[in-house]
Specification:
- The protein has about 350 residues and is an alpha/beta fold.
- The chain folds into two domains: about 190 residues, Thiamin diphosphate (ThDP)-binding fold, Pyr/PP domains (Rossmann fold); about 120 residues, Rossmann fold (3-Layer(aba) Sandwich).
- About 35% of the residues lie in helices and about 15% in strands.
- The chain has 13 helices and 14 strands.
- The N terminus is likely disordered.
- Its cofactor is thiamine diphosphate.
- One of its GO terms (biological process) is pyruvate decarboxylation to acetyl-CoA.
Length: about 350
């Protein structure tokens, strides 16, 4: 167990956090492309500049500038009191982060992979998620738990689990999962500003992927509302819901289906909890069909919750049974060929029309 830190010592440590003067980074006018890594980095930078209570902590976030370079340049700009390198002890630094949130600060806790958040799940669930309710609203816990989630490439079962369904089943948490650079930037800003604990599930394979963004997205005031899905592509024949990397697969499948005369509507969930049931059900009532896509396991998954929502609210509009496309019900294999078979591919989204 992590040692008990006296209130006096913790207070003295946290009082050292000071505002850091930093102008918002400028971007060229007009639409441009930035990758997801840059979007996350700029969101962190702007929120740390705007609010001196925001700080980042985790393994290698400072001197190494992040295992995936998400925190590049932040240590130099804000100093070691706001960009804190921690020991390899998730239970320890997550507990400190939750305590700092109790104190009124706004910690951002980075996990090198969300599989490692299992070491800290007691703090995430029992200390962060439940405190506002159990204190009758007296204790707010404004903390963000972020890092890569789901399958990467050749990293085995202990680095490839999707935790969206796990955390989304817990009252008191909000769970977000971005796909594009716009999602990453707008949702992370919303998460940092939110008064409740937020689990922010990124995807390692998306960090280097670039997306076009508008001037509005690049503005420092830009923020995406939590709990609102985005219709990435409109259609009339079938609704496909997805989140994170699977949104890209769904869009590619929709392009293939279009060549066959099938019009697919693709919904980027963005928010796993709260779930935008209204947008999902409105789409299904238009198309009459639903396919859900996720990397996670089939049993008790995000897709299962979406299907239940549609059966409860829009059963009479369905023209065919709902379909769930998920990862295989096995721990992730290490071998590349088996790994591909264990997670959905673009062709997996086409079988229901074969």
């Amino acid at each position: 167990m992590w040692g008990v830190v006296s209130q006096k010592v913790l207070a003295q440590s946290l009082q050292r956090l000071r505002p850091a003067a930093s102008a918002w980074r400028g971007f060229a006018s007009g639409t441009k492309e930035i990758n997801v890594r840059e979007a996350l980095n700029s969101a962190l930078d702007e929120e740390m500049s705007a609010d001196p209570k925001v700080f980042l902590m985790g393994e290698e976030v400072g001197e190494y500038q992040g295992a995936y370079k998400i925190s590049k340049g932040l240590l130099e700009k804000y100093g070691p009191e706001r960009v804190l390198d921690t020991p390899i002890t998730e239970a320890g630094f997550t507990g400190i982060g939750v305590g700092a949130a109790y104190y009124g600060l706004k910690p951002i806790v980075e996990f090198m992979t969300f599989n490692f958040s299992m070491q800290a799940i007691d703090h995430i669930i029992n200390s962060a998620a439940k405190s506002n309710y159990m204190s009758a609203g007296q204790i707010s816990v404004p903390i963000v738990f972020r890092g890569p989630n789901g399958a990467a490439a050749g990293v085995g079962a202990q680095h490839s689990h999707c935790y969206a369904a796990w955390y989304a089943s817990c009252p008191g948490l909000k769970v977000l999962s971005p796909y594009s650079s716009e999602d990453a930037r707008g949702l992370l800003k919303a998460a940092i500003r939110d008064p409740d604990p937020v689990v922010f599930l990124e995807n390692e394979l998306l960090y280097g992927e670039s997306f076009p963004v508008s001037d509005e997205v690049l503005d420092s005031s830009f923020c995406i509302p939590i709990g609102k899905a985005k219709i990435e592509r409109e259609g009339k024949d079938v609704t496909i819901t997805a989140f994170s990397k699977m949104v890209g697969y769904a869009l590619k499948a929709a392009e293939t289906l279009e060549k066959e005369g099938i019009s697919a509507e693709v919904i980027n969930l963005r928010s796993i909890r709260p779930l935008d049931r209204a947008t999902i059900n409105s789409s299904v009532r238009k198309t009459g069909r639903l396919v859900t896509v996720e990397e996670g396991f089939p049993q008790h998954g995000v897709g299962a919750e979406i299907c239940t929502s549609v059966v409860e609210d829009s059963f009479g509009y369905l023209d065919a049974p709902v379909e769930r496309i998920t990862g295989a019900d096995v721990p992730m294999p290490y071998a590349a060929n088996l790994e591909r078979m264990a997670v959905p591919q673009v062709n997996s989204l086409l079988f229901f029309y074969c």
